Amino acid sequence: MKSTSCQPKGAMLIEYVQQSKDLGLDKDLLHGHYLSLIGTPADRNGKFEQFVKARIAEEVARQFFSPNENTGPVGDPATGILLGKIIDSGLPYFLNLLFFATHILVIAASGKGKTNMLVQIIIGLLAKGIKVHFFDHKDTGCNFLNVFPDALFLEPRHERWNLFKGFVDQQTRNAFVARCLGDYASSHPSARNTLNSILADYCHDPDDLPSLQDIAGVVSKIGGEDSAKHQNLSNALFNICKSIGDLSRVRIAPEPPLLGKELIIFSRKSIPARQENLLISSACTQEWERLTATGHDSSLHSVHAWDEGLKFFGATGETSQHGLVQREKITKDRSYGIGNILCTQSVKKLLPDAVDNCSSVIALGMNNPKEAELTARIMGLNSSQEADLLNLPPGEAYIYTGSGPVQKIKIPYHDLGRGKSRAEIEQLMTPHWEELHSQATYSPKIKAKVRKLDFRVTLGERTSPEESEDNSPEKRPPEPILEETLLLLSSCRGNPAYGVVQHYRNLGWSSGRGNRVKSELLSNDLLASRRVVPSAGGRPKEVLTLTPKGESFLEQYEKDA
């Protein structure tokens, strides 16, 4: 059922009951049937609405398709969800929930109806009481809110959980997160070992854990005392903190987080792929640990839908720690009652293990003959069906489940409407975001140290910021204070006889990176440069020394820090 505005649960229930009357369903009979299925009175609270929605979905299917008296639907409405109607017979097609528990692969070219089909699937899953996590990489979630007004829309900065939290064994969790962070930062092995030791020392009590920002600060302190390799790791951690906002400051999170919502839309368009992989790897392994600690079975309770499966299940980087989690997720989720729907335009670019572990395949229209050939081979299609893949109009699809023949169906169309603007989303979601925010405990905010550059200086139009047309203190570009700037200043003060090549080698920098930082320091009168001929002879080398302004700046910064 579609709705275009947010409604209180009571009002929505009234609407569902009215719709059931319009379909000829008797409310009292529905309620009596419901009570006969539910045990204690406490179990009944809040579930009648879900039950009515499921009955309505089944009745809509029966009445909409109007099958002949001597025919019935393909699949069982009691154990499946309506996907559409079979094109040849006009009968409704229900996909059994068991197939979602063993994962579904959806292949289609752009514009052929993947998003519309996901809406149809999500409507059916929610009607059966299955929770859905939708990972949105294309801003589709802005449109989904028109159809699912009760959904929770989250960017990473709105999420509230601590990636260091271990539910089974904290030390094992520490080792896993250290490997993930090390892979993300592409850090030196010695820096990874340091991170592993830091987590072992500081993340020992699962009820009193530091935030990611806390750990980045600890690594930064150690990096300042040790080597540039550790400082590079610290910089990478702070970059993550900047991208995910207050999520990086969470020390104690709600327990368990986000489980009260039927549909959660995780907006992922604005986050870099490597950071997303880090967050998803950490979150899904943490969910396995939580379910292991609390007890679980393989009964389907939630489905993760990926509008672009390549973002997490792509074959690139499969040898990393992230690649190991890719394989584990697609193989272990079913044991924990979690299904996955992987949508993609290119099946050949997916991790082979991801393709092999999807028991069902839905193929919509395609434009690439090679993709059609590979899809046909996976689904066991004949040559005419393979050719038909290249001619399917939007909304038509072949479905393979490994149980029974391949079916060709027509999927009902859903008008998603205009995507909601950021202001509209914030108006709808702010109460939910504030509730989540109030349930967590945070580390103090670290004031960002930002370097602002004047492009005219970089392009050589000016020699210093003082030549700016507006030279007032409020408008003058501030002095650069990024970490790499401090590293070079510290190296020059501690090793005054070094040439620039030695400084760069000591810091682990390329000549391009070093020259960029050096040029900015020279233009801001923090460093002075001179040519020195070695006493033993040979080629002259460029030696950098701190100017009085540079000495004063570095001393003041260290004092403030």
UniProtKB/TrEMBL annotation:
Q: Does the keyword ATP-binding apply?
A: yes
Q: Where is this region: Disordered?
A: 458-478
MF GO annotations: ATP binding
Keywords, alphabetical:
ATP-binding, Nucleotide-binding
Q: Is the keyword Coiled coil in the record?
A: no
**Source organism superkingdom:** Bacteria
Under the heading PANTHER family, the entry gives: SLR6007 PROTEIN (PTHR30121:SF6), UNCHARACTERIZED PROTEIN YJGR-RELATED (PTHR30121)
Protein name according to UniProt: ATP-binding protein
Q: What is the lineage of its organism?
A: Bacteria, Pseudomonadati, Verrucomicrobiota, Opitutia, Puniceicoccales
